[in-house]
Amino acid sequence: MEWNRLIRHRAGGQVAACWIACCRSNGRSMYAYLAEEFATELINVRSDTELDGALKQVSRRLGFDHFALSLEMRSTSCEAPGLLLHDYPDEWAKVYIAFDLAGQDPVRRACDKTIIGFAWDWIDELVPLTRGDRQMLNVGRECGIGNGYTVPRHLPGIGRGTCTFAVRPERELPRRRFAVAEMIGTLALSCALGLSSEKFDEKVPSLTDRQRECLLWVARGKTAAETAMILEISTETVIQHLKMARERYQVHCKQSLVVAALFDGLIGFADIIRWRDTG
Length: 279
Description:
The two termini are 42 Å apart. A five-stranded antiparallel beta sheet has the order 2-1-5-4-3. By secondary structure, it is of the alpha+beta class. Helix 3 (28-42) packs parallel to helix 9, helix 10 (209-219) packs across helix 11 (224-231) and helix 10 crosses helix 13 (254-264). It has 14 helices and five strands. The radius of gyration is 21 Å and the shape is elongated. The chain has helices at 3-6, 13-23, 28-42, 48-62, 90-98, 106-111, 123-126, 131-142, 178-199, 209-219, 224-231, 235-249, 254-264, 269-278; strands spanning 66-73, 82-86, 118-119, 148-155, 159-166.
């Protein structure tokens, strides 16, 4: 089976089985060694520029025309640190920045719905595509970016990153090399994380057990009074716990507090969803 068919089986053990099977077939002798060479090269990478050059070279050898690596580090400051490397056409880069398309990018939204890479022509299987989304993808093609394969990674408490390999509009994606592109994208993001960690070191705020309990019940939709009844403490105590949690996170509302705690892994989606399913 080809990688683009295998990767659609995203449930549990099927992913691992498909990964192993694909790594053992589909031209492995021709291209899998590139991942090993790339990993060896990354050992000596000491700067963003060196990583940029390594990604450009390996993306061409895999049969892609362009690459883009984005790493967004967690931060409570206004200017979140991160890393952006790419060799996209200047026209597309200017349009993307000028119109602030990052917040509208369907590729970014799709990254939140999968733990493995995906081709852009599968996006509508991951998230609904609006007319604006399709128009944005069309503008990208007009600017020289056709289809792509994106490798997403989300690290609770640290940040999120993507590594994309793209082709020009007139070319087809090298789909039989997706498995190797997945490995290389993961290696590149790991290297980028190491480079960024040297520049940035911000600790995740810590909450007490009681603060976390109060926050969890609020995330489940309970009011302060209802949380107090469940935990058998006073409503004022719940309010104080939540206030202190907001202060530690430097946020001003419970919604922002819940989002930040989810991002950092202090509470999990399963903690919320499973309770609602059984409640």
